[in-house]
From TrEMBL:
Cofactor section: Zn(2+)
Native organism taxonomy: Bacteria, Bacillati, Actinomycetota, Actinomycetes, Micromonosporales
Organism: Dactylosporangium sucinum
GO molecular function: hydrolase activity, acting on ester bonds; metal ion binding
InterPro entries: AstE_AspA_cat, N-alpha-Ac-DABA_deacetylase
Keyword S-adenosyl-L-methionine: no
Protein name: Deacylase
SUPFAM superfamilies: Zn-dependent exopeptidases (SSF53187)
Keyword tags: Hydrolase, Metal-binding, Zinc
UniProt cross-references to Gene3D superfamilies, sorted A to Z: Zn peptidases (3.40.630.10)
Residue ranges of every copy of the Succinylglutamate desuccinylase/Aspartoacylase catalytic domain listed in the record: 55-224
């Protein structure tokens, strides 16, 4: 039986100005046309707009720049359904699937190569309408969506892993410090400060270059602790409150651990069966160095091929692979931070952000 939607087809966006030019206290959807594919399909990106009854800032929610990062798409759907437009001041612009080609193939990069460029879309912003397909999609978002935002939350996770931390830029300028404080509203237990601009062409890097407050929300996955959906929605409400878009105070932790320097991406060395020793309870936990996190076993010979251990004296688990399953060489297993020299910071007190 074929499912037929009762929703009207979303119109193509004719100009960037049209995106925010909708009635107050209303929802709208648009298509961002990108290109005609060889199959005859018109490739486009769907954008949802929710405008409150009163004027205010514009917050952007973007997910699935990488096609296997689907938790953000899920949370954006829930968040848009939960908005009370009568009491909303301003506008929420949501892009649940920024890279529909990668989403279709379930891959981090754009497609699988035979009819796509197989690029990492989060390395090509602001893109180019005359470039590879990844660049064309990035350009459609840059030209029609990103420049109209006051703040942006960009969601990332993996397909077979679970993740929960905030990644911030190590820039020490006054504007960067303001952005760091804005990131703290994500209310994760762990914050990692990386080098200044370690990757070029990210969507948040492009947004920050335009003066837009931006957050890399490393959260979600295939197995999550109970209540994680509600926690993620509360985090979005933190930003709505901080921007003055809804009433109330954000829900923030009493302390957060900030780390820099040591951060290890542990990959699967050999393919086989993956047996986790530390499950989802290890996410956002600090474990002793040398703790066995998982093993990879050859299903043919039963040989233990790899034993993955916590690498630091105090190892903070940013990302874990909590479920049993088949793995291939090079698959992600864990992202671990060095908590040995972590700095504990008190609850964010100045949480209101005037734009």
């Amino acid at each position: 039986m074929t499912h037929t939607s009762s929703e009207p087809a979303a119109p193509a966006l004719k100009s960037p100005k049209e995106l925010l030019d909708i009635d107050k206290a209303s929802h709208a959807q648009f298509r961002l046309p990108v290109a005609r594919r060889a199959s005859g399909e018109d490739l486009s990106i769907r954008v949802h707009v929710a405008k409150g009854a009163s004027d205010g800032p514009t917050l952007g929610l973007v997910a699935a720049v990488h096609g296997d990062a689907v938790f953000g798409s899920h949370i954006i759907r829930l968040a848009m359904q939960r908005l009370d437009l009568t009491n909303l001041r301003g506008t929420v612009v949501a892009v649940p699937v920024a890279n529909p080609v990668a989403f279709e193939s379930g891959t981090r990069t754009t497609g699988q190569g035979w009819n796509t460029d197989m690029n990492n879309m989060n390395r090509v912003f602001p893109g180019s309408a005359e470039g590879w397909i990844s660049q064309q999609m990035a350009a459609a978002l840059s030209e029609n969506v990103i420049g109209q935002l006051d703040a942006l939350i960009d969601y990332h996770c993996g397909a077979d892993t679970s993740i929960n931390y905030t990644l911030i830029d190590g820039d020490k300028t006054q504007d960067a410090q303001r952005n760091i404080d804005f990131n703290r509203l994500m209310a994760t237990d762990f914050i990692y400060t990386h080098d200044v601009n370690p990757f070029s062409g990210t969507i948040t890097g492009h947004a920050r270059g335009l003066g837009i407050l931006s957050v890399v929300a490393e959260q979600g996955g295939n197995i999550l602790p109970p209540g994680f959906d509600e926690l993620s929605l509360t985090r979005i409400e933190n930003y709505l409150k901080a921007l003055g878009m809804i009433d109330g105070e954000p829900v923030l932790p009493d302390t957060q651990l900030v780390m820099s320097g040591g951060r290890t991406l542990q990959r699967i060395r050999h393919g086989g069966l993956f047996y986790p020793e530390v499950g989802i309870e290890g996410l956002s936990a600090v474990v002793e160095g040398g703790t066995v996190l998982s093993r990879v076993v050859d299903p043919h010979s039963f040989e233990v091929l790899q034993e993955i251990r916590a690498p630091y004296e105090k190892s903070a688990i940013f990302q874990t692979r909590p479920g049993f399953g088949q793995v291939n060489p090079g698959d992600y297993a864990y992202i671990i931070g060095d908590a040995t020299k972590a700095v504990e910071i008190e609850r964010l007190s100045s949480w209101r952000f005037e734009l």
